[in-house]
Amino acid sequence: MTAFANIVALLLAAAALYGMQHSTPSYSEILSPVAVPAAQGKPAQTERFVFGVAKVHLARQLVASHFGEPRTYTTSGKWLVVEAAAKAQDRSVSLTSAAWRGPSGLRFAMSTRIGSTLGLLGSERLEPGIPRPVLLVFELPEDQIEGGTLLVAETAVTPLSEQVEIAMDSVPPENRYESLTLARGGRIMPWSLEFHQ
């Protein structure tokens, strides 16, 4: 009888350990950013900043200035260009982390091929109460665009900071182009876009 009780106790302890192992969050999950879910077209508000997506464009190739000369950038997938606006809440902040999470869970960082000017996210500090236009440019495989989520945070390395997670709509047909030209704009809008079907 004692041997049977010991076996039952051992099985219960093993089941408890198994349950704890699979229900306890991992170290990376404990220190991951706090998700702030949002939808496209509505401002997402965190404790330190507000972020909203205005327009989304999709193109096969991107043309941008490189040392004053236009340069054509191609990709094996598509270029996704997100026009957005952001502002700080009560003190200055810089948003330096943006990623695209595809429907399969794969993450893609912003493209660094076109430089850091023209109002790209991270190029300017945000001030309280002053909305600033920001641009995000991604190179994405075609099967990772529909059903994707835009992730924006102050930085990718600060544990427990807030991260906006915007569920993105499908890109409408009128915003899909063969080529998109990204040019320098003025003081209010740092960039201008030209579209070619």
Strand percentage lies at over 45%
The main pleated sheet reads as:
6 strands, mixed
Helix content: 10-25%
Gyration radius, rounded: 22 Å
CATH architecture: Sandwich
Task: Name the structural class.
Answer: mainly beta
Helices, by number, come to 2
CATH fold label = Immunoglobulin-like
- From the N-terminal CA to the C-terminal CA, the straight-line distance is 81 Å
Mean pLDDT: 86
Helix and strand element order? HHEEEEEEEEEEE
* Broad CATH class: Mainly Beta
When the domains are counted, the total is 1
- State the total count of DSSP E strands: 11
The global form is: elongated
Low-pLDDT windows of residues: none
3D architecture notes:
Strand 2 and strand 3 (49-66) form a beta hairpin. The protein is mainly β and 197 residues long. Helix content is 13%, strand content 45%. It has two helices and eleven strands, in the order ααβββββββββββ. It is elongated, with a radius of gyration of 22 Å. It has helices spanning 2-23, 27-30, and strands spanning 34-39, 44-45, 49-66, 69-88, 97-101, 107-109, 132-140, 149-153, 162-167, 176-184, 191-196. The protein has a single domain, classed as Immunoglobulin-like (Sandwich). Strands 2, 3, 4, 7, 10 and 11 form a six-stranded mixed sheet that branches. A five-stranded mixed sheet has the order 1-9-8-5-6, with no helix packed on it.
